[in-house]
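[recover] target loaded
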């Protein structure tokens, strides 16, 4: 695919960026070198942080202006400078075509996306915390308004949906598709340790090789031996929820299988049990944690598809060329071993503006949610506070079928977050809407979810 042919246009696409975290900064930096793209407005609650981010990416001080009013922002954009503002709703009336929402805040992300759509702007949604809860209704609202709502290339949902669509276009039968965890499990034979980021565990057993015909036992041993190292997160489940809702594929386990596996093992294990793998069924979305040596290719944050091999001679030839085919020659893996955050988000921005297309699903539906299960007893009044990696103490996230809002229905993770419990919750219970004491009855996220339930009749 020649991307220059796809996106050739004489127009400049003006973008409003909301949120200057790692993703927003990387998009801001790369956009200065992207033909046909201009970041006209940068928004963050802390305007000094936003201004510093602009300067760090090479923008000259004279090309920036901190703006307080609508007219001041308009004048700055018209002059060719970048406006820096703290009120995101201010940019929605500005002469921009696309809003990139990258705050990572579920309620705020929902507010910004809905408001942008109502103001005729395309939305590139980086905030998976909103997307996994109300993405389908936001997509439908955008369609009705004649604009595009899309996940962002650079994050796994959009990239995996793209890889799945490529495989389907070629006629592959997909057994499993998914992402790799954000950090690899790196094995050091000399010290017999396995490190994940700054955390290290001793490999008390020889975990490097899986015994032929005993993949499930070997994967279980790795999981148990390395249980002190995180093996999935709510972010992983949220991203794969978006993919399931966008593609119609299924899931196989509430926390996904998330095996610790070497790249070369994946066609062997990410298939059905009848074929020597660990899956109970086919056509699922899952994830892996890449096990590798320090001198091997990283797979952190990459995406993959496992497909059935049709035409043995073709796949024997491809295997001989070094492609990943299992020993039986029945399953193969194609993968993209990287994701580049905002560095590659321009393709979603330009697809929305130039092609009027999303880089996500064609017709997302609310099929699954991320729910919460108590792993210890929780007292009445307990506040469901997100920590730095969005875990909530005493609760475990899990994927489950989406249900209509009702007192006894499971409440989505990010709708419960930040609120308190009405009463004591026993260990092992799923949290439901009826257990949540809301701090405020006014919530865009809750309102959109109610409309989503009505529209899709779930």
């Amino acid at each position: 695919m020649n991307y220059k042919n796809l996106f050739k246009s004489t127009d400049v696409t003006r973008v409003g960026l909301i949120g200057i975290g790692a993703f927003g900064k990387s998009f801001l930096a790369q956009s200065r070198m992207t033909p046909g793209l201009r970041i006209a407005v940068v928004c963050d609650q802390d305007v000094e942080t936003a201004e510093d981010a602009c300067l760090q990416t090479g923008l000259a001080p004279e090309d920036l202006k901190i703006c307080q009013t609508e007219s001041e922002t308009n004048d700055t954009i018209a002059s060719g400078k970048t406006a820096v503002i703290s009120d995101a709703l201010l940019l929605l009336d500005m002469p921009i075509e696309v809003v990139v929402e990258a705050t990572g805040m579920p309620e705020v992300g929902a507010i910004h996306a809905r408001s942008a759509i109502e103001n005729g702007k395309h939305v590139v949604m980086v905030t998976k915390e909103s997307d996994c809860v109300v993405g389908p209704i936001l997509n439908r609202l955008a369609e009705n308004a004649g604009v595009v709502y899309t996940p962002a290339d650079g994050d796994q949902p959009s990239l995996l949906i793209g890889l799945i669509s490529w495989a389907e276009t070629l006629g592959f039968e997909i057994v499993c598709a998914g992402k790799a965890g954000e950090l690899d499990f790196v094995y050091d034979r000399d010290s017999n340790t396995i490190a994940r980021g700054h955390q290290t565990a001793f490999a008390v057993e020889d975990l490097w090789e899986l015994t032929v015909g005993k993949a499930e036992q070997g994967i279980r041993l790795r999981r148990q031996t390395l249980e002190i190292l995180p093996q999935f997160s709510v972010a992983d489940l949220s991203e794969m929820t978006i993919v399931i809702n966008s593609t119609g594929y299924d899931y196989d386990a509430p926390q996904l299988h998330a095996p610790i596996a070497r790249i070369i093992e994946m066609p062997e294990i990410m298939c059905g049990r009848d074929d020597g793998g660990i899956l109970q069924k086919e056509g699922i979305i899952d994830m892996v944690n890449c096990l590798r040596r320090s001198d091997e290719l990283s797979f952190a944050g990459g995406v993959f598809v496992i497909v059935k091999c049709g035409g043995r001679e073709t796949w024997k030839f491809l295997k001989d060329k070094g492609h990943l085919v299992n020993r039986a020659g029945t399953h193969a893996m194609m993968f993209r071993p990287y994701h580049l955050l905002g560095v590659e988000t321009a393709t979603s921005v330009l697809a929305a503006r130039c092609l009027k297309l999303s880089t996500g699903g064609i017709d997302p539906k609310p099929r699954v949610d991320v729910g919460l299960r108590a792993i210890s007893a929780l007292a009445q009044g307990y506040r469901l506070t997100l920590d730095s990696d969005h875990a909530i103490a005493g609760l475990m996230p899990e994927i489950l079928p989406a249900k209509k809002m009702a007192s006894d229905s499971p409440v989505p993770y990010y709708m419960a977050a930040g609120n308190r419990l009405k009463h004591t919750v026993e260990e092992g219970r799923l949290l439901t809407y009826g257990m949540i004491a809301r701090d405020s009855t006014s919530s865009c996220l809750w309102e959109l979810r109610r409309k989503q339930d009505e529209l899709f009749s779930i």
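[recover] notes: Residues 128-145 form the longest helix (18 residues).
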